[in-house]
What we know:
The structure holds 2 protein chains of 2 kinds. Chain A has helices at residues 4-11, 21-30, 84-89, 110-119, 121-148; strands spanning 32-36, 41-43, 51-57, 60-66, 69-76, 81-82, 96-99, 103-109. Chain A is α+β, with helices and mostly antiparallel strands. In chain A, helix 1 (4-11) crosses helix 2 and helix 4 packs across helix 5 (121-148). The longest helix of chain A has 28 residues, at 121-148. Chain B is 58% helix and 5% strand. Chain B has 37 helices and 15 strands. Chain B is extended, with a radius of gyration of 40 Å. The relative contact order of chain B is 0.09.
Amino acid sequence: MSLTVEVEALRSVPLFNTAPLKTLQLLAFLSDIVTFRPGEALCRQGDDGDCAYVILAGSAEVWVHTPAGATRVSTLGPHQVVGEIAVICDVPRTAEVRASGEVRALRIGKDLMMQLLRDAPEMSLEIMRTLARRLQDTTAALSAATAEA
Amino acid sequence: MTSTAESLAPSAEASAAREAESHSSGAAAGKASGLSSSLFGYAWRFSAAQQATMLALTLCTFPIAYLSLELPKLIIDDAIRGDNFPRVIGGFELEQDQYLLALALVFLGLHVFSNAIKYIINLMRSTTGERLLRRLRFFLSEHRLRAGESEDNRFGQGELVQIIAAELRPIGVFLGDVFTGPVLHGGSLIVYLVFIFVQDPFLGAFAIIIFPIQAVLIPMLQQRVVRLTGERIINTRELAEEVSETVAALPTLRAYGLTRWRLARLTGRLHSNFEIRRRILVRKFLIKFVSNVLNHVTPFAFYAIGGWFVISGELQVGALVAVIAAYRDLAQPWRELLRYYQEHSDFSARYRNVIERFELHMPEPMRPPGAAAAHDQFGGEAGPDLLSRGFELPRPSGPGRAAERDALRPGPGARVRISGADDPARSAAIAALAGLSRDASGADARLAGASARSLSHAERTRLLPVVDRRPVFFAAPLRHNLALGLLRPAAAETGARQREVLEARATGNFATAPDRDWLDPSLLGEPDTAALDNRLLSIAERLGADRAIFELGLSARPTPETAPTLTSRLEEMRGALAGSGDETSEDLSSLIEFWDIAALNPHAPLVENLLFAAAQSERATPRSLAEDKIIRRTLRGTRAETVLLDIGAEIADATAELVAAVGPDAALLKAFDLYPPGEAELLRQAAAQYRERGRTPLDARKRLIGVAFGFTPARHRLDVLSPEREAVILSARGLFKAIDRTGGFSRFDAATGASTLSVRDLLLNGRLKLDRREQWGRVTEVLIQLCRRFDTEGEVLRLGLDVELPRMGGALTQDQKLRLALTRAIILRPAALMLDSVAGEARREDAALRDALAEVLEGGVLIYSSASPSQQMRPFAPASELELPIGDPPPAPAPKPGKTPPAAEEPAQDAPEPSPSGAGLADKVRRAAADMAGAGWSRAEALIRRWRLSSRAETPPSDDAPADPPNERER
């Protein structure tokens, strides 16, 4: 099967690495491979999140559009996951992700993602952990920032 | 058309009538619908005639049953062993053999006759049961559909499905039997007993003496077994717990040398487990022993005592044989009676349970036929026109504050914003305004003097529709989905004789005319569907929903009738699209894989690659094509067939494992489209049979080829298509050169207006690249421009309206669904459109949609809810917009007096250069945001904004930092 690359990528994503190998193979098989040319958007801020991506090759830039202008906040590379929270929490995309070169990614549809979470409670726990960690980081950054300023 | 204002006026009469109506159709259902509190009552009410007929027929069988017991006796004692022949019967003189034959024929006749009656009874009671069940199911479904909103949460979806689909089913079977059953079985029992008594009272007494013993002794023993089984379950659970505790504590047990102690405890548990099991077995087999012995005590008496009577000449041999036969037959009605008794108590309880669950015990007046739809009527004065007769919005209630009447009187064309940070509170306020909530505190809108709560469902939906973030779409044509308000029951004419209609009437179902179109454009005053389409499309265009409709239209298959211009100008359009090397066509080639007779198209399934044609029937599947006679005949014995079988077998092996890993029923496999996951095992077997190289059964071959046919290289990404195989498939295209002439297929290279490819296939002459799906919108854009140029956009849009949506709207995106739902609400010309967390925020897109809505509302009021703070909304909302804040007014970030309020849309160049410490803060925030990789950007964004604001306002940010500004909430 030519799913090895995809499965390897999925395995290195913390969200999925608790899932059994067969589930990951199935997930890779049922998801689509998508490609982006430089400058094309993986997702746009404000759009509804109907899928998450796992980047297989290439890199993408994360831009946040604020009233003060667009800010590049980070760069994502292979084996990083994009947009899973928007899918799970049903919120609009909170940033724009643009391909900075040719990007190849695994596109995991919303239905598939939700079904996977329903079938694998440990994955839900991982999501909770991720969210909690991010909240903690934000809180820490906020208090550090206010103390500093 | 009656004036809606009249019906909206708060006349006591009208509201009383409405009340009565809603009562008759709402929760208070019951007696008239026949749901009496007992099963007997229900069955009798709706099947009295059938039940009476069945009872009468049942009574007829008893004399026959008696005769059929009597006859064997007569045959043995009189015909075989008798004398005085010839006999004269009915004027005929019969010799012994003739007499025997005559009696045997009568015996046969009796059985034929009695079984014929049983056949009729069986049929009657089954159909009666089914009808009663159908009535009950329909009634409960209808009851559910018509109950008020307050009832919506009383049942889980699963519970209702379980009750209606599964739990009621056995009740249906029982209902047909409810009267006939006991009479039939009890009667038979009595007939057999009477017969035995008539032969000899002494034997009769023996026959019944066993019943009481059986009825007392066996249940007693049974009870002990039940109790012991309970003990055993507890014991097994304890055993399991002990074992798992042992496993969990293994290191400790070893460390303390407790293995023997633990094993001893285990031994104790195992012993009591064995002991309980042994006691169960003893009793179980004792029951069997006792009941077997008892069952043979009576025959013993019959043989011993009856035989003695025969010897002493008091009883004929035939009579004894007949008694033994009757006794053997006795067992069955006895069992049936016991079963009936059990079922009766079981189903009565279940029925009562349902009645209580649905609260169906209140009496209601008889519902006239067809009234089911009466209060759903649409029509009446247009919503915007009603506004001039008064429209009042109360100030919504909040914590510690009741709703205030007459707070706002928005005039025609007004916009009202329900603002507040609390999502559920805003939703609740919208529901209250629209008259949808249970809360009767007067928080509902008042239109032309009538409060929203007093409106019927239909009036409310038409005049004060609410659109939320989860609009519902049904499996129906898109046009119907957009004109839900115009789908009105086309009741069957009285006197219609179709079987379906008759059955529906007979069971209290809603008798509709099958195949009637429910869409009624005249409710909107439109003369026909075409006029309705125009209206729908012009609204959809303003709201940006036309793109979704166009995309659906692209997947439709045009015919010269449905799209005359498109089909006649196809060549021109394709020519224009292909262009000659201009920017557009170059761009398209990165998004479209064009059909090329000499190359494989990895974005299309193998079957289309092989045939270089598509099936005309929309129902054709790869599997059905594998069964197609022409395709099979053409493929037979070719190398292409071998290649396809190889591919099919390899796919089967590769995927069967994946399917087995999660189980074929896993919901995860919903997206699995190569074959029904349930067939994975069959397919694997087919692959194994094929590999054995014998003659593969035809069914297995079809299966494998079907799977290979559906394989789309770019989608399924299994390593099964080597360059050699690809070449074989390409060369096999020649075999199917004439496939389009056989009918049923359209070749890609000869696609004309007469072929039945989809609009997209026809125009693109290729397939959208699957890996470029995120950019497909660009192709749609090009096609829209193309269709505009050739004046065919309208036709494609109309084709889109015809498209049958899959369940839940299928592949429509959330945004498309919302815009379509808005179109659906607007088409009914509402007085006020209420948006519940839809298009409500301080964003350019939302503001644009609100402006578009205000325009198509044609004077209707736009009420929307927004979480964005007022000052952020300012640039996105007209100054005349009214605001209804929910809860406490949102805390403003306290700008210094005299300063202009810091606007959120402040241009970047106005921002001051960040101070060194400010830069550090911004970096930190950005770092935190980067860690969040996708989530909580708004939080980060809010942080940046706060920092900018606070550094401008020159207030120490630490002062208000702990407060949680409303825009910072997780949305």
